[in-house]
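Sample 3 of the quickstart, ligand 2-acetamido-2-deoxy-beta-D-glucopyranose:
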Amino acid sequence: MLGSIFSILLLIAAADAAGIGVTYGRRATSLPPPVDVARFLARGTIVDRVRLLNADPLALRAFAGTGLAVDMTVPNALVPRLAESVAFTRQWVRTRVAPLAAAGTNVSRILVGREVISQANRPLLLALVPAMQNLHAALVGASLDGQIQVSTAHSLGVLDALTTSPSAGRFREGYDAAVIKPLLAFLRATGAPFMVNAYPFYGLTDDTPLDFALFRVGATGVMDTGSGLLYTNALDAQLDAVHSAMDRMGFGDVDVVVAETGWPWAGEDWETGVGADHAGDYNRNAIRHLGSGVGTPLRPNRTFEVSIFSLFDEDLKPGPLSQRHFGLFHADMTPVYDAGILTAPEYVGPVSSKVTPAAAAAVPAPAPDARAADSGGRRWCVPAPAADAAVLQENIDFVCGQGGIDCSAIRLGGSCYEPDTLQAHAAYAMNLYFRSNGDHEFDCEFGHTGVVTTADPSFGGCNFT
Ligand SMILES: *[C@@H]1O[C@H](CO)[C@@H](O)[C@H](O)[C@H]1NC(C)=O
Ligand SMILES: *[C@@H]1O[C@H](CO)[C@@H](O)[C@H](O)[C@H]1NC(C)=O
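Result:
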């Protein structure tokens, strides 16, 4: 007990230094009303920032007067409209942003789109920076630019997937000059941070094992042979890959913020590392480390702002079970596990008894070695069961439009042309992309329409590489 109170006090000190946020996603059937959530976060936790994944005025208004800094998100579908029209953007700021600020919601950032670079959508991608520029100009016009920054959050899919060590980090070719460079120039000019969603959970491999991801290797760690720097955890390695990429483009002075990180407390039996103990360890250690002032090997002696994903489980999300079990809190706001962010000690403690029997039964026990046993470690990327047809078509167009990727097998006469269905062709194309970029989970995101599987989808003469 003393130990946990002590660690809470340490974390409060960390919060002052860095800033701890949570992502408030709401794709769930039963969640508490936003006003209750706002009150709980403001009074019961050390969280000082909340990130909404949309611009829902009711949810945003709930945070008025709490003092919490609020990041709101422009939905991807709106990004091209902001890019096209200065008048539309001004009107959006006038009707959707200014009233919030006037009502006392501490809007601190507007994030333009979500993981735009991973959406495999070229018009959206090309609209990103112009939309951010128009939005910033409209905020200047409304005298809100001093208070509200404009940024956007990226998955690690912005990096070249061939990156093996942090010092080799570089932005993905083709995106670097077309999108990332003007983006970084915009962020530098406006003083806004480069925001990344960094998930060591999705980087688990034989080379980056669980203990490294969970900050458990102590001072042993892994030497980056490129820089001679020692890495003691996977999060530092991911952040420094981003720092290296920025340094390489001459934008090392732009600040980096961890817009999302987290760990699922349950998942499929083939998903390595899922579980409440691991989730608790990861989140507590990540918060403590980023707030400690130690910094990363490439950016020593500094703190990093971080937002934990996610406030609640979201049972309406597609994909493997883990996608629906990133929550820190149950819908009644009792903690799923001790993430170290509560101010009131009476809340602290494991609450596995609060999981309903139905939910517990639906969650298979994690089996860390299932992956290797099933498929010799091989994995494939296929469409998620409920994936939208239009998005699957975009995925095919995107993958097969890349130089160096050969989609001839799904063209007429190719070995995977039959069955001639969108689902089957998308599976082939998405897997090809995943495989040719080095089997990274983030190369199977496709705007949350892809899932990694251990079941080989090959059939007949159609061979999935
Ligand atoms: C609003 O959030 C910022 C962080 O972006 C913080 O510095 C400031 O104190 C907050 N304002 C209020 C009124 O609480
Ligand atoms: C970081 O802090 C340590 C201890 O205060 C100091 O020795 C070191 O020179 C600092 N490094 C940088 C890059 O500022």
